[in-house]
Design goal:
- It is a single chain.
- With 542 residues, the protein is α/β, with parallel strands linked by helices.
- It is 40% helix and 21% strand.
- Strands 1-2-3-4-5-6-7-8 form an 8-stranded mixed β-barrel. Strands 9-14-13-12-10-11 form a 6-stranded mixed β-sheet, sandwiched between helices. A 5-stranded mixed β-sheet has the order 16-17-15-18-19, with helices on both faces.
- Helix 5 (144-156) crosses helix 14 (372-384), helix 11 packs across helix 14 and helix 16 packs antiparallel against helix 17 (474-495).
Length: 542
């Protein structure tokens, strides 16, 4: 559980020791402080936010020290879980119940993988009190899949979701329809660094989300009367900060506050048909020209979209070309949708174009939708999917030895003439219709220069050996050959969207001194490329 530290008087602090974190987690000596959240209109308390602290006499008393030590030790998830348990234990022991609402922070960096103990772990129940877990805006943009998985886990546990820290990067507003937060927290300190026009955009988009979904808007960092006025002008329902109430020990907070007179903050749930069902219902037969025109329309709309926008590549060379025209793609699909397309998502509008293979050979279907719920659900489904790591079958030992010897012989010959040797390893993965793999391989084979050697190593692995490369500019030659291979398969990948082509490269003597070293580098680069996911990944060895 991440935390907001309250200012304290400067003074000496004991340096933490490596064993302190272990002792804190083992002995359960974390502390909780609660900060009230008030209604902006009435000034009455409605919720408490829990912040974690270490033992007061330790070198890990502040949240910054705690989480830094946990990150170094690789125990952020364990600390997060312990902080949640401590906060819920303290809330339960004090009899905290509805109509109070309890806010908990969470660290995406410590989010455990699917199936591991998380928000459904023992000790994380809070009988009688609604719980809302925070997803920080900065972390959501950096790790959108993890943020959305955390939201799913929270809702599965019966908890609500808050988007915390809005103001640093306005791009996060495009993910409002996907995260569907019950509470949006505006950080007045961060918004103070934005232009007046940007603040107006935030107010409008967050307000529209609240009006559409019933979400509450909370203004953080309310430190004086001026901040309170700004919070009201932004449309905040709730306020939090030193001008409202300071964080204190649980027993001190609850004895000083009246019981809320309004009900707990709403916690929403979603129960809609799956994106796959709705995509199937919306699919229509279409040719390649129609898909290309639809992608062109989507690109033009995205280019002129005035609101913060997120682009989600759903795979396929055609969609990637259109996305490239719009700048870097914000997030990419984590799993194959058996098609290719592009989604454009803003806080107020959403569109998707998705082309997929049809039932017959050469046939395809096309989905063009501007349904914001469908697009939001599709983006969430794509980003929260986890692609299993690829573990390619290693080449047969005889082939490995042969290739190493071939590279070594080529390198020796190039040393005598003052030229260089390049090695490309090409992996072809995925499934396709009968004959599709052979067609892709033939396209790549024809793209190789006549002076280069094409070497089949296994059904899904091929090598290209380049010799006689000029020392000046040899890396560029290898790059151009790799680009030619990728261009040769782009059309084929569109026809077979479940297929993925990856390339790993090495270059001697600039990057490797021996044939064996060049072979190892190219294999490592290919493995990294395959692990990165997506079509046509190419990575040089580091």
């Amino acid at each position: 559980m991440t935390a907001l530290s309250t200012p304290t008087a400067p003074g000496p602090r004991p340096a933490p020791t490596p064993s302190e974190l272990d002792a804190i987690l083992r002995e359960g000596t974390l502390r909780t402080v609660f900060q009230p959240v008030h209604e902006a209109a009435t000034g009455r308390p409605v919720a408490l936010e829990a912040y974690v602290r270490g033992p007061a006499d330790s070198g890990l008393s502040t949240p910054a020290h705690l989480f830094r030590a946990a990150a170094v030790a690789g125990r952020v998830a364990e600390l997060d879980l312990a902080a949640h348990r401590t906060a819920l234990r303290d809330a339960t022991s004090l009899g905290l119940a509805a109509p109070w609402t309890l806010f908990l922070n969470s660290s995406l960096e410590g989010l455990p993988p699917a199936g591991a103990p998380g928000l459904d772990a023992p000790g994380l129940d809070a009988p009688g009190v609604p719980v809302v877990v925070d997803v920080h805006a900065r972390s959501l943009l950096t790790h959108p899949g993890a943020g959305l998985r955390l939201a799913r886990r929270a809702r599965a546990a019966g908890w609500g979701v808050a988007l915390d820290g809005v103001g640093a990067d306005l791009g996060v507003l495009a993910l409002l329809p996907v995260l569907r937060p019950d509470v949006v927290k505006l950080d007045l300190r961060l918004l103070a660094r934005r232009t007046a026009e940007e603040v107006a955009t935030v107010s409008a988009l967050v307000g529209a989300h609240a009006a559409r979904t019933g979400a509450r808007v909370l203004a953080q960092s309310v430190e004086d009367a001026g901040d309170h006025a700004r919070a009201v002008a932004l449309g905040a329902d709730l306020v939090q900060g030193w001008a409202v109430a300071r964080a204190a020990r649980p027993e001190d907070v609850l004895t000083a506050l009246p019981v809320p007179t309004t009900g707990p903050l709403p916690v929403t749930t979603t129960d809609r048909p799956t994106p796959a069902d709705r995509l199937a219902a919306a699919a229509r037969p279409a040719g390649a020209d129609a898909a290309e025109q639809a992608l062109t329309h989507l690109r033009l709309r995205a280019r002129h979209e005035p609101d913060p926008t997120v682009l989600v590549s759903l795979g396929g060379a055609g969609a990637r070309r259109h996305a490239a025209d719009l700048g870097p793609v914000a997030v990419r699909a984590h799993r194959d949708l058996d098609g290719h397309g592009l989604a454009v998502l803003s806080a107020r509008t959403a569109s998707v174009v998705l082309a997929r293979p049809g039932a017959g050979s050469g046939e395809r279907t096309l989905v063009v939708s501007h349904d914001p719920d469908l697009v939001a659900d599709l983006v969430e489904d794509v980003l929260t999917g986890e692609r299993p790591p690829h573990r390619p079958e290693p080449p047969a030992p005889a082939r490995t030895v042969d290739l190493t010897d071939l590279v070594a012989d080529a390198l020796e010959g190039d040393r005598r003439t003052g030229t260089g040797t390049g090695l490309l390893l090409v992996g072809v993965d995925g499934t396709c219709r009968r004959g599709g793999r052979d067609a892709v391989v033939r396209r790549m084979r024809r793209a190789v220069r006549s002076v280069d050697r094409w070497l089949p190593l296994a059904p899904d692995l091929f090598a290209v050996l380049l010799t006689g490369l000029p020392r000046a500019g040899s890396e560029g030659v290898v790059e151009r050959v790799a680009d030619a291979l990728l261009m040769a398969v782009e059309i084929a990948v569109d026809d077979h969207p479940s297929m993925s082509v990856s390339i790993g490269a090495s270059l001697a003597p600039q990057r490797a001194l021996t044939g064996a070293e060049a072979h190892r580098q190219a294999l490592a680069a290919l493995e990294t490329a395959r692990g990165a996911g997506g079509h046509c990944a190419r990575i040089w060895p580091v």
